Amino acid sequence: MATGPSKPERSPLQKRNRKVALIAAGGFVAMVGAAFASVPLYKAFCQVTGFDGTVRKAEAAPDRALDRKLTIRFDANIRELPWTFTAEQVTQEVKIGQTGLAFFKVTNNSDQPQTGRAIYNVVPESAGAYFQKLECFCFSDQTIPPKTTIEFPVVYFVDPKFADDFETKGKGEVTLSYTFFPSVEAARAEKRADATAAKHSSALGVPAKAGL
Questions:
Q1: pLDDT band at 111, cuts 50/70/90?
Q2: Which segments sit on the Cytoplasmic face (predicted)?
């Protein structure tokens, strides 16, 4: 029985090039996946280590305070929200290891509820490993009703190890900075709700948005 011409056997060079291409493709897919996964991992890493000036979360205050004092400055910023955001104190003086209490105030100047999320960091960045918070309004959505002002407390301390680190022991001032951004999660949830409502309205033969 006649058979068709057999496929030419690949040369060693062709086999090697194919193997390299497959490895490169696999590496690209892995890098893309890592890029998407790296955002929450990076945020978690920063909060645990204080890297890049990120304030760390603590479970309890230190059991000792040093005689040395630090000046803590407070900074408040808004990005793309119709809010007024201010720190109720410009500075505080606290002992290293002593618990401090600061207040921030947010006013929604619009006629609609607005949802934002605050991120924070400290300057100098080397202080991020030692500036820790016990209570904070950051990294969670905050929905402010229209024409409403809400006060947020922040309970914090500077770890006594701050005084021993060669990068921070000579520092006498630390700035805690917050910036409110529109909540990405809230915007996505609103879009999903609008899409669901439009789908249900279409199934019932009713326009999604009817004018009066």
A1: very high
A2: 1-15
